[in-house]
Amino acid sequence: MPSNYVIKFDHVSKYFYLHHQKTLKEFFQAVFTRNKTVENLLALNDVSFDIKSGETVGIIGRNGAGKSTLLKLIAGVSTQNSGKVEVNGRVSPLIELGAGFHPELTGRENIFLNGVIMGLKEEFLKQKFDEIVNFSEINEFIDTPVKYYSSGMYMRLAFSVAVHVEPQILLIDEIFSVGDAGFQQKCMDIMNKFKKKGVTIIFISHSIHLIKNFCDRCIYLRDGQLVYDGETEKAIDIYTSHL
Amino acid sequence: MQYWDLVKHLAMREIKARYKQSFLGLLWVVLNPFFQMVILSFVFSNIVKFPSLGIPYPVFLYAGLLPWVYFSTAIGASMNVLIDNSPLVKKIYFPREILVFSSLIAKTFDFFLSSILFIALLIYFKITFTWYMLIFIPIFLIQFLFTYGLGLLLSALNLFYRDVQFLFNLILTLWFYLTPVIYATEFFPEQYRWIFKINPMSVFINAYRQVLFTGTMPNIGSLGIGIGISIGLFAGSYLLFKRLEGIFADVA
């Protein structure tokens, strides 16, 4: 019987192998001099939690605390070294500013490219095309190569495709730093709409303000360990006291 | 296939983006091997004289040059495909071999596009068309499998150590001269001809020439070795690629 958990981490640890030697030459030198060739860096240390369907969970912690690694494991692009990660449902990561965009291609071509990268069907994108363009507010430049776009326009287009994916689990990694105030507001409105629809949202931000307003629950990571998991207010209190 | 749309758009991205800012655009795909052929033909029929082959040298050369150019450009592209797409590799899950496969599809498009000029050349030199020529398609599929296997292997290794691409570019140069592209196997000293038997690219090119020019079946024995190596390489590379896939995002 499947539980109502959409994400479950069970004693998950993740190492990074730090290669001290980037080239074969350095590597062979290290082998001969018996230096260490690989060092493990513990990015996540025995982390356990589960997230129910429809929850909005913020993840806070300093740089290098393991926040992005956590998202990578949820997105399935990276695999853990020990423990178990269970994810049920379609994950859609709100990726960095138009990763997968090609600068030489037009906005129109990039909508399709980015859409299929995120797992949408071409047919579906054709139906949603006008909606995506309208949301991005770049109607008249849609047939211009995106290399001529301003970074705000670039961002709006990327975001616009992302929100039309109709995700079940939405991963947001620090993406609201770009775009003008009006667009940021629009993004927040969309996020709230998703929240009401019951989409599970995992939200990483350094903006305490956004986390406080948006998340019902918060996970605080420190040096790869889960320090606190619970009420947002409390998590933020502990986090700020550690700063 | 679930990821067909993705393959299609990734391949289209490569094809469209490459020549977008050039005046001649896609025509370069055809012109590039053509002028290589013209230059090499000039050198080897006027300066260095090869013994007669029974068929005009330009056609003979082109039949070897096109599959070779396909092979070397496809390997070059797939070797870098994981590095070039590192933002995707880090963020979004889809089977990573799709990236390699798509870049191969883009190069395959180039291959067939540049073959148009080859067909024109066949007509110009009044080469007799036979049904055996169609066998070039299954030979191409085997070459595709071989290239795909090697592409998977090198793309994964190159992600960890960039030395792979520099080393392999050297190997490609040597490989070119050990493959009968500009010459025929008969020009090679007899005691060294075993090289052509174990070199899949040589097997493919000889098979192409046989079905195109002699109107006979390719040598099944040596093609069998080519098939064996291709399947073996693909299976091994695929397994390794899938094993490493989980840490691609950490090193990309």
Walk me through this protein's architecture.
The complex is a heterodimer of chains A (243) and B (252). Chain A has helices spanning 24-32, 67-75, 107-117, 122-136, 151-163, 181-197, 208-214, 232-242; strands at residues 5-19, 38-52, 56-60, 82-87, 91-94, 169-173, 200-204, 217-222, 225-231. By secondary structure, chain A is α/β, with parallel strands linked by helices. Chain A has a domain at 5-90 and 205-242: P-loop containing nucleotide triphosphate hydrolases (Rossmann fold, 3-Layer(aba) Sandwich), CATH 3.40.50. A six-stranded mixed β-sheet of chain A has the order 5-6-7-3-8-9, with helices on both faces. Chain A is globular, with a radius of gyration of 20 Å. With 252 residues, chain B is mainly α. Chain B is globular. Chain B has one domain. Chain A binds chain B through residues 16-17, 22-25, 72, 75-79, 91, 93, 95-96, 99-100, 102, 104-105, 109, 112-113, 116-122, 145, and chain B through 5-6, 8-10, 12-13, 16-17, 20-21, 85, 87-94, 161-163, 246-250.
> Sheet bearing the most strands of chain B, described?
none
Taking the alpha carbons of the first and last residues of chain B, their distance comes to 27 Å
Q: Order of SSEs of chain B, N→C?
A: HHHHHHHHHH
Instruction: Fill in the CATH topology of the domain at 5-90 and 205-242 in chain A.
Output: Rossmann fold
SS content category of chain B? mainly alpha
Radius of gyration of chain B: 19 Å
Strand order within the widest sheet of chain A? 5-6-7-3-8-9
Strand content of chain B: under 5%
* Multimeric organization: heterodimer
Morphology call of chain A = globular
User: Which geometry of chain B do the CA atoms define?
Assistant: globular
- Helicity level of chain A: 25-40%
Let me know the number of strands of chain A.
Answer: 9
Poorly predicted sequence stretches spanning 5 or more consecutive residues of chain B: none
Can you tell me the residue ranges of chain A where pLDDT is under 50 for at least 5 consecutive residues?
none
> Could you state the CATH homologous superfamily of the domain at 5-90 and 205-242 in chain A?
P-loop containing nucleotide triphosphate hydrolases
- Beta-strand share of residues of chain A: 25-35%
Task: Give average pLDDT of chain B, whole number.
Answer: 91
- The total tally of domains of chain B equals 1
Radius of gyration of chain A: 20 Å
